[in-house]
Structure formats: structure tokens, C-alpha cells
């Protein structure tokens, strides 16, 4: 493609609409895609590692760990105001304010619960084991997309689901686990179940959100995606804050800060860094949804989870025994087959579009 030609933006919204700010040259488009991929990969890896660091250094409030996952949501306003467009496609039957509010509230509450499950999982698991289990969200996503979003279930997708399930199963029966110091086998099992449940719930949320765009909001522009993320994060933050005070965890925060292994300043910086990292990741997620597609964004997110164990080995010296190495390879295999299936779908879709365009040109002649 020549540098002065605009790339085709494959998005989930109306294909005829493209915001003026995204009429970019080929290299500019790829630069934007690469930047968003970096935000997603770096943000997610940093957030997981900092979350594990918080627990390792003496932090033990799962409500605080849950709160920091969404509390920096105002960062989302940066891309919202810079990249939003005012001339997007509109629908004649927009949902009522009450409907949208109820949707965002329910999703926000569920997100808060999902974040709590993730926090409990990371409390009892090493960063590498946690990330490998989280990678199963791609398998759950395929299953929920089949039932909720009518997405086809091919042999390659089935292979991906089976392989990722085997990867998680290996970690479940791994006797030589590298659970954090002081974590019993019972707590390890709790961590495994909650992380697996959180991954399933997250995948269900993605499918429900996609259905919401189609059936309730009836559009999926960049602004609408960001608005949903902003308001659901606001609700999730409120729920987490209520939980923090209702549980009494807030009373222990000062003592937790004083007893933090690397000091009070490091305690604050860890929480701030975790919060910012999650939102940097979120910006990358919504950026890829807008510039490429929601499917591509989810796949890159899952790929990050498969790479995080390597970072955990470097940062925390997590033990990578034979079982975990096999689980990692299986996760990468499942990821690769999922990617390949979507590559085939993309090639088929492009071929169909070309045939339609050629038929249209012939009829005009």
C-alpha cells in the first residue's frame, strides 16, 4: 500500500464511517497500532507484576487491590477528548437514559466483582501461574461468543479451547507449585478457582458488552466504547470503595503502609503505579478496538497474559518447572490456532468484499 493511501480500518462499527482524524498514511496507521499494542502489553504486564509486588511486600487488602484496578479511570478522558469524533453515524432509535444508566450500572457492579476475583487469585498465586490461568479467557471467549454472539465454532477454535483448557488443568494439578510463601494448598486451590472464574466472567462480560452495542446502544464508535468503559469503571470504583469501607479494610491501611517491606513511599507508588498501569492498558484496549477491531484487541490482551510469566521469572524469579513450561507452550499453541482461524476469516472476508466490488463495477459498466 502506498504511503499516501489511507489504510482500511477494520472495525466493528459501520464500515462506511471513518473519523477524519484517522485518515492517516499507511505508516502513521501502523505507528498508531503499534503504540496501542505497546500500551496494552506494557500496561497489563506492569499491573500484574505490581499487584503481585503489593502482596509480596506486605499488602493484604483485596479490596484495595480491587479498587486500584479502576480508580484511575479519568485517564480514559484523555483519548476521549483527543480522538473522539462529532460526525459519527447516528441511529434513529437511541436508547433512553434510564436504559443506558441501568446497563452501565449492572456492568459496573459485575466488573467490580470480577476485579475482586482477580485480586483474590493474585493473592494466592504467583504472577506467572496467575497469568497462565488468565490466558484461558480466550477459550471462554470463544464459547460465550458462540452462544451469545452467534460466532461460528470451527475446528481451529475448538482446538484452541481444548488446548487452553489443558494448560489450565496442568496448573490445577501441579503439585510442585510456586505459590507465594505461606500459601497453603487450600489457598492455592482458592486462588486457582477464583482466577479461572474471573477469566470466565471477564469473557462473559466481553460478549455481553458486544451484545449491548448491537442490541441496546446500536452502535460501536470510539466515543461510545470509551463512554461505556468510563461509566462502568466509575460504578466499579464506587462499589469497590464501598466494599473497602464496609469490610473495615480501610482501618488497616495505615498499618499496612507502615509495615510495607520497601517503605511508605514505595507503598503509595505501588498503588498509584498499579492504577495507572491498568488504565494505560485500558487505553491500549480501546485504541485497538477503534483502530483495528475488538477481536484483535482481545487476542493481543491474551497474548500479553501468555508473555507475563516470562516477565515474572525475570522480576520475581518465579520458578518455571516442567509443568509450567508445558502449560505456557500449550497456551501459546492455543493462541496461535485462534489467531490463524481469524486470519483465515479475514482473508475470506476480503475475498468476498473484492468479489462484491468487482460485481458492482461490472454492473456499472
TrEMBL record:
The chain crosses the membrane at residues 29-55, 61-83, 103-124, 130-148, 155-174, 186-209, 221-246, 266-292, 299-316, 322-340. One of its GO terms (cellular component) is membrane. Its main location: membrane. One of its GO terms (molecular function) is purine nucleobase transmembrane transporter activity. Keywords: Membrane, Transmembrane, Transmembrane helix, Transport. The keyword Membrane applies. It is a multi-pass membrane protein. It is found in: Membrane. Belongs to the purine permeases (TC 2.A.7.14) family. This is Probable purine permease. It comes from Actinidia chinensis var. chinensis.
